[in-house]
Write a structure and sequence with these properties.
It contains 19 helices and 2 strands. The protein has a single domain, classed as Na+/H+ antiporter like fold (Up-down Bundle). The longest helix has 32 residues, at 291-322. It is mainly alpha-helical. The chain has helices at 8-19, 22-44, 53-72, 78-101, 111-122, 126-137, 140-154, 156-171, 196-203, 206-219, 249-252, 256-264, 267-281, 284-287, 291-322, 329-339, 345-353, 358-386, 390-393; strands spanning 227-231, 242-245. Strands 1-2 form a two-stranded antiparallel sheet. The radius of gyration is 21 Å and the shape is globular. The two termini are 23 Å apart.
Length: 397
Amino acid sequence: MIITLLSDSIVVKSLVKTLSNTLFWGTIIVACFTILIGFLFQRKKWLGEGWEKPLVKIILWVGLPALIIKNFMIDLNIDEFKNMVSLFILGILFYALLFFGSRLFFLKQDRNSQDAYSMAIAFPSTIYFGLPMARALAEGNFQLTEVDQAQNMFNVGYWIFMCSFAVFVFQRNNAEKPRVSLVGHGTWHPFKNFNIKKLRILFANPIIIALFVGFFLWIMQLIPGIKIIHVTDNGWNTISPGYYSITRLDALIPGFSQATTILGALPTPIAWLAVGAIIGKNNLRETFSKGEVWYASFLKMLVVPALITGLLAAVAAIGWKTGLYSVSNISLLTAILMIASPAASTIASYAITYNKGATTCSQICTQTTLLAIVTMPFWAVIASVLGEAKIFTQIPV
């Protein structure tokens, strides 16, 4: 119905524009090639068993915190604040919906299987697939900045659930608890074993620390008179000349911008190598012959993105009608591509670490990654066409 409201010329223009974007297809090709390298390293045992584990630690402890901080180093005004906070709230609501609702598709499974399947569906590989694809489709520095900021705010809920409750799900003992029911005996209680010790572990996570620090520095820019740092075009700094807030560390500290840019670029290629290692550990014939894995992959790559796209359109329409906030077409594109990304390799790592559904999560990660070569261009086209609707392109009235 939404597409019929758009003129044919707009639809065709958006379709051609997306599918003819060489940077977008180049990103997919590079991702496939890097994953293939990781696959070969694993199959040929060139670096021994478990070679990818230290690389994953580099991602979690260095690369992702640097990327998060870097993306918060951006100017802020009241209008942008309202729009970004709306994405912040939407991200938390969407990931809460995925975290708690995804197991409803697997109520006939035993508890361990429910945990594995639902977590694999709930958490996509947003930073390693969705973000590079969105950046490839962005036009100019302004849209690139908007993509980075949108993924930062939309992913706050993702990191909170990924770094806390997802871990608790894989840690818990499901012995003698055959399945989850909606009511009565056996109902799932995700917060049952949540305590202060686990809360401290959550807030000691470098990703969570980077989120809170970055958000604090970003929002402090709203203080009147705080923009006192003068950057000229003849100094050491690489950012544009002008006056900046003292919380803009990239303007205050020499080399900060270069350091976060270089370190923040590490997660994506390293994660692709790690995904290749996961694929290399799996029997591909077995992976593509299991009906349950196909069912989970269908939900992950088609059903879930479709549901979230519908919800995003509804939320954008409300904001456009009321004038309280807006959801831009770039924010829409970023959110859809992140949700439509394959299952996160981190979930497979959790499953292996805590010996719960390791084979299942690895197979879903493998299959969704290979299917993403087809499904992500499809969702990129959907997002580009839908983004031409007036609720994403016009100022709220």
